[in-house]
């Protein structure tokens, strides 16, 4: 659809566009000015990333695995987890209790209702969480947000304390066992010295024992790292193999991390093999020492390893105890909510501007829909496409309250339009015959064909042409109303043999026009119109008059009209643009287009009022009678004559 077509739709359906625009804007205005103002308060929470404890006895491996797992999930996963915790029912129920939230009936608000009102969002590219709440009471909005932040922080702190308490209990049990293992190792060394007296390791043996202790510590670290890396790989594989994982936004990150983890595992295995080989080599070297020195070296090694593990556990237990005593929370309130001083909604200007845009869009859509549903032809080009025949003329719509009759004002544009139609008809080959007859028909009823046929015949009678106007529309006679004269006899009476031809002819005063009305309405018009007597009447009229105009029923509604078309020299099609539809015009063209009939042309009736304008009228007017001016030269002579007589 081009711009010109769009503008044409806007011109035709401007009322629908304006109506829809006003409806939407008015509705938005009513909502904006009647809606209860809503105030929004918000706060910001900071998610503190916890540093995992490097616990001994395999705990370091678990901690390392947890750390890698958190990294592998992407930076937003911990924040998303905390955002879901904010919306959990225990926290919301506690907020409802502390803030005293109720519904319209005064009953305590449900957690589901509060969850719909609370908005929790992650601040992009940060570890911040924004929590907001809207209420008609600005103080209540701030109170609910701050209460929610406090309850959430306390809940987070409690969970951290429970985790630290559990870790501390585990460390205490491990510390007790390791303390006993250290005591047993120390006692074994003492027992050896009691049996063998004052006995000490040589410098070489001490170096071997020290190196072996360091390698054993390194082996434990590698074992822990390997366990953690394998745990990460297993978790990543389960995530990547889950249904729909390929479309997850973290899939590429998981895939990359899995490849890195596989490389890390390969490196750890290689380091583990190296350390194990070194430990075996040191064991071989220790085995070459004297038996007593080998036994003392083994006992000393076990004592050193037990002492290192005990010291590590003791240090970690103290850290856990200190964190538990400090009541550490991983959530911090960095920006509390304040009472808002202006409502957040409705935003009147924004709403009205949006409503204006939506109103225009809906109005245009409504105009397009109405235009598509309207089956009326939209342009002269469309009429020509549906009826590919010559346009004989454009008949303008009569002024409101006036009679559509050229006899009322012979010098009007309305009368001139019919004279132009007759002028165009004279150029048709059929009209050059000595005796010329044509029928006037239309696609549907109510298109003004009878009035148009009467006006054409009246115009013919003004120039001395012997013209006859015959009404063959036996179902809906209208000549009495058009000529404003009673005509009690007509075609029907002649066809049934009750009247003679001269008895059904009426002469228009002062003109060469003979009118033959339809007469009384018969019970069987189809049989009369197709009778042999009617054909004889048509032949008689053709011999008696120069031009015979037949007013016939709509050609798409009455079967005999098509039969009548074979008995005349041509057909004039009338299209009333205020009544015609594209379907009716198409049906009429399909009905007459392949019959070999002589189509003289199309007359467009009532071109004003539907966006069509006759191209020949409007700029040129006859001067009203009594106001016509004499030629300029004559006025001068009259003036000179007056001066001379004076």
Structure, described:
This protein has helices at residues 3-12, 14-34, 59-72, 76-86, 89-99, 111-117, 138-196, 203-240, 251-287, 291-326, 348-373, 380-386, 413-425, 449-461, 479-483, 491-495, 525-529, 532-544, 559-564, 582-592, 632-645; strands at residues 39-47, 118-122, 128-135, 331-335, 391-395, 436-442, 467-471, 506-507, 513-516, 547-551, 570-576, 599-605. By secondary structure, the protein is an alpha/beta fold. Strands 5-12-11-6-10-7-9-8 form an 8-stranded mixed β-sheet, with helices on one face. The protein has a 4-stranded antiparallel β-sheet with strand order 2-3-1-4. The longest helix is centred in the first third of the chain and has 59 residues, at 138-196. The protein starts with a helix and ends with a helix. Residues 51-76 and 616-646 have low confidence and may be disordered.
Short characterization:
The protein has 646 residues and is an alpha/beta fold. The protein is 56% helix and 11% strand. The strands form two sheets. The chain has an eight-stranded mixed beta sheet with strand order 5-12-11-6-10-7-9-8, covered by helices on one side. Strands 2-3-1-4 form a four-stranded antiparallel beta sheet.
Keywords:
elongated, eight-stranded mixed sheet, 21 helices, 56% helix, alpha/beta, 12 strands, 646 residues, four-stranded antiparallel sheet
């Amino acid at each position: 659809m081009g711009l010109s077509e769009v503008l044409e739709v806007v011109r035709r359906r401007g009322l629908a566009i304006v109506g829809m625009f006003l409806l939407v804007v008015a509705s938005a205005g009513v909502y904006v000015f009647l809606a209860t103002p809503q105030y929004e308060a918000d706060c910001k929470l900071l998610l503190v990333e916890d540093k995992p404890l490097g616990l001994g006895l395999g705990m370091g491996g678990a901690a390392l695995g947890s750390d890698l797992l958190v990294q592998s999930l992407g930076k937003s996963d911990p924040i998303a987890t905390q955002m879901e915790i904010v919306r959990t029912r225990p926290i919301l129920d506690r907020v409802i209790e502390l803030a005293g939230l109720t519904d319209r009936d005064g009953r305590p608000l449900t957690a589901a209702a509060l969850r719909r009102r609370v908005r929790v969002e992650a601040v992009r590219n940060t570890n911040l969480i924004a929590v907001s709440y809207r209420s008609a009471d600005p103080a209540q909005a701030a109170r609910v947000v701050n209460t929610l932040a406090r309850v959430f922080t306390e809940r987070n702190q409690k969970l951290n304390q429970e985790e630290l308490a559990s870790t501390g209990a585990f460390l205490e049990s491990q510390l007790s066992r390791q303390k006993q293992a250290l005591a047993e190792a120390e006692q074994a060394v003492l027992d050896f010295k009691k049996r063998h007296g004052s006995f000490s390791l040589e410098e070489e043996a001490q170096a071997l024992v020290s190196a072996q202790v360091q390698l054993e510590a390194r082996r434990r670290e590698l074992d822990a790292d390997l366990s953690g890396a394998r745990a990460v790989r297993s978790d990543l594989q389960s995530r990547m193999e889950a249904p729909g994982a390929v479309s997850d936004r973290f899939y590429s990150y998981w895939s990359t991390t899995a490849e890195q983890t596989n490389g890390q595992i390969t490196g750890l295995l290689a380091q583990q093999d190296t350390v194990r080989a070194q430990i075996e080599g040191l064991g071989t070297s220790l085995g070459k020492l004297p038996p007593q020195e080998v036994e003392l070296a083994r006992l000393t090694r076990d004592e050193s390893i037990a002492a290192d593990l005990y010291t590590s556990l003791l240090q970690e237990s103290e850290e856990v105890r200190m964190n538990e005593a400090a009541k550490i929370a991983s959530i911090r309130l960095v920006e509390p909510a304040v009472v808002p001083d202006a409502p957040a909604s409705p935003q009147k200007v924004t709403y009205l501007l949006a409503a204006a845009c939506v109103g225009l869009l809906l109005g245009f859509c409504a105009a397009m829909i109405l235009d598509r549903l309207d089956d009326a032809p939209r342009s002269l080009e469309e009429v020509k496409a549906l009826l590919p025949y010559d346009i004989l003329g454009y008949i303008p719509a009569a002024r409101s309250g006036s009679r559509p009759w050229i006899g009322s004002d012979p010098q009007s544009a309305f009368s001139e339009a019919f004279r132009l139609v007759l002028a165009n008809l004279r150029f048709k080959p059929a009209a050059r015959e000595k005796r010329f007859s044509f029928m006037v028909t239309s696609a549907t009823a109510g298109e003004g064909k009878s009035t148009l046929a009467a006006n054409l015949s009246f115009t013919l009678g003004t120039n001395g042409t012997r013209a006859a106007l015959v009404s063959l529309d036996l179902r809906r006679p209208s000549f009495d109303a058009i000529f404003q004269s009673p005509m009690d006899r007509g075609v029907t009476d002649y066809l049934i043999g009750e009247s003679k031809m001269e008895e059904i002819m009426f002469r228009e005063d002062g003109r060469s026009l003979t009118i033959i009305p339809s007469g009384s309405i018969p019970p069987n018009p189809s049989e009369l119109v197709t009778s042999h007597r009617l054909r004889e009447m048509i032949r008689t009229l053709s011999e008696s008059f120069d031009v015979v105009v037949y007013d016939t029923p709509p050609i798409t509604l009455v079967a005999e009209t098509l039969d009548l078309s074979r008995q005349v020299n041509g057909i004039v099609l009338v299209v009333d643009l205020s009544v015609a539809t594209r379907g009716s015009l198409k049906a009429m063209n399909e009905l007459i287009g392949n019959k070999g009939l002589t189509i003289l042309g199309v007359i467009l009736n009532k071109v004003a009022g539907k966006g069509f304008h006759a191209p020949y009228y409007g700029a040129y007017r006859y001067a009203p009678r009594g106001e016509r001016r004499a030629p300029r030269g004559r006025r001068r002579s009259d003036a000179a004559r007056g001066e001379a007589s004076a």
